[in-house]
Amino acid sequence: MLTLKNELEQMVFHLGGDLFGVASLDDVAREIAGEYGDTYQGLERAISVAVFFPKEVLNELAEGPTHTYLYYYDVINARLNDIALRISNLLQKKGFRTFPIPASQRVNESKLAGIFSHRLAASRAGLGWIGKSCCLVNPQVGPRLRLVTILTNAPLESDQPLEEGCCGSCTACQDACPPQAIKGQEFHLGDPLSLRLDAQACHDYLANVRHSFGKRVCGRCLAACPWGK
Ligand code: SF4
Ligand code: SF4
Question: Where is the secretion signal located (predicted)?
Fold first, then answer.
């Protein structure tokens, strides 16, 4: 018999998702409460969905920003948000609480982070590990993907996280970063982001790119990653 998790997984693949996983947030409840207060209290599962970028399109960013990348960025976000809303509404109809986190949404201009970490959810769901670039790295496509998350209290069986620290001695993203925002540190749960990334330096660099290119786009760190290249 099809479990609820199987039903959701089939739905995601039918709608054009490339990866699906379920994270238990029990182990990271303290970190989540520390970052977001009690906003997501009681939502102890995170459904994580990824859609892949065409690799060739993303790899072009090694040479500078492109409009092709921006086009697919919007297409992929729209698909992810549609999938998240459909899953959320299905679970809601079954009587569960859900909170779909949009694929790309900041709290505000002064707070650079989003309203929930898709990368944390995806790494706990076994979709990859958080690399030195602070992006999720998947063994199949590296960081050439985008993510969406649906928080829920549905009692879904959780997947196992991958091993942390799979970047090893690689420094490709750090070397490729124009403002040297990436500090070359491995991700460890509980460490502040500032140990690994100068988010302001990245933000300022993107603001400069907007002056010359018209849009905030870089992604050299993604294009440089050897995983999945
Ligand atoms: S997006 Fe660009 S500036 Fe920001 S961390 Fe990556 S390479 Fe550096
Ligand atoms: S470029 Fe290297 S160090 Fe950076 S995320 Fe990819 S594997 Fe890790």
Answer: none
Residue 79 structural domain: 4-224
Q: Is 100 in the pocket of ligand 2 (CB under 6 A)?
A: no
Whether 229 is in a domain gets the answer no
Residues 6+ apart with CB under 8 A from 86: 11, 15
How many structural domains does the chain have? 1
In a domain, 98, yes or no: yes
Please give the distance, rounded to the nearest whole angstrom, from the Cα atom of residue 9 to the centre of ligand 2.
29
Task: Tell me which residue of 41, 11, 35, 57 sits closest to 219, measured CA to CA.
Answer: 57
Mean pLDDT by 10 residues, the chain (229 residues): 94 98 90 82 95 96 96 97 98 97 66 76 96 96 97 96 86 98 92 92 95 94 95
188 within domain boundaries: yes
Query: What residue type is 136 in one-letter code?
Result: L
